[in-house]
Amino acid sequence: MLRLAVANAAETFERIQGPLADRGIAVEHVPVSERTVDLTGTGGFAGVDADLDAFDAGFVYPGRVMEGGVADALLSVPWVNGRDAVLTSRNKAAVLAELARADVPVPESALVSNPVDERALVDAYERFDPPVVVKPNSTTRGVGVAKLHDADSFLGVTDYLDLVHDYRATGDKSFVVQEFLADATDYRVMVVDGEYVGAVERSLPASERSRGHWKHNVHRGAEATGVDLAPEHRRLAERVASVLGIDFLGVDLLVTPDRVVVNETNARPTVDAATKYADGFYDRLAALVERTARGSH
Question: Are the C-beta atoms of 191 and 251 separated by less than 8 Å?
């Protein structure tokens, strides 16, 4: 039986443990952050009793890359989505640029790399019809994303970003300015080993929308409902995974009556309930884990 070390969220671990066990893969949770780690002895990760030398593969590379480097060294396994895949997907601007170069539809966007002067910021803002969306280049779950309706508000938000970016230890000093697509339907599409395996529509409750909330992130209260995605949207998500070269990918689509664009991607997507995926999802995921493990020998 293969042994799989799962370093991401506990909810993903809980959902995949049983189905993968049924397919000959023992799944064990190996959290690598918010604990102490014995780097030179045999203690390993505090609170983790597993034999770190006995794993065949990892799933997926930790989001905190410093701790991920330690996990990579101690586990010494190939990863379903390794460091390069996670860092590629995390860089929103680079993903948008690469997809646009490959003629994949994306929102009109610009990158701001601080520090820049006010004139450059105004020029970036005036490229778009308001409102515009401002988002940090490398955060997830909608953290730091703002919708701004006028230039003064835009400059006020960028002032705060300047303060954050002025801190010497801040590694990412960039943000994305993007068009806002009103009334777009938000889909998270899952692709495993190049093939569409399911999708959910993410939507805030009407009560939240009536209060002005607009970010359809599950971690911010949106509901995820399984949907039968249109074939052309499935093919688009598969193409995104192919362009980026990422085996296990969440692709976020925004669909309006006249456009569909790839908004973001996630190489560390949360695995949802099995009922929200196509038949064969876990068969395909298990095959990817097995192929990854074989690559280590």
Answer: yes
Reported as a single tens digit per residue, the pLDDT across 255-274 is 999 999 999 999 999 898 88
For 204-229, the pLDDT digits (tens) are: 888 887 788 777 777 777 888 999 99
Token representation of residue 74: 């101690």
Give the residue numbers spanning the domain of 187. Answer: 182-267
**Is residue 123, in this structure, part of any structural domain at all?**
yes
Annotate the chain with three-state secondary structure. CEEEEECCCHHHHHHHHHHHHCCCEEEEECCCCCCCEECCCCCEECCCCCCHHHCCEEECCCCCHHHHHHHHHHHCCCEECCHHHHHHHHCHHHHHHHHHHCCCCCCCEEEEECCCCHHHHHHHHHCCCCCEEEEECCCCCCCCCEEECCHHHHHHHHHHHHHHHHCCCCCCCEEEEEECCCCCEEEEEEEECCEEEEEEEEECCHHHHHCCCCCCCHHHCCEEEECCCCHHHHHHHHHHHHHHCCCEEEEEEEECCCCEEEEEEECCCCCCCHHHECCCHHHHHHHHHHHHHHCCC
What CATH number is given to the structural domain containing 296? 3.40.50
CATH code, domain with 252: 3.30.470.20
* pLDDT recorded at residue 297: 38
Task: Flag whether 95 is in a domain.
Answer: no
Q: Taking the mean position of all CA atoms in its chain, how far away is CA 89?
A: 6
Residues in Cβ contact with 131 at an 8 Å cutoff, skipping those fewer than 6 apart: 147, 148, 149, 180
Q: Are residues 28 and 41 in the same domain?
A: yes
How much is the pTM?
0.92
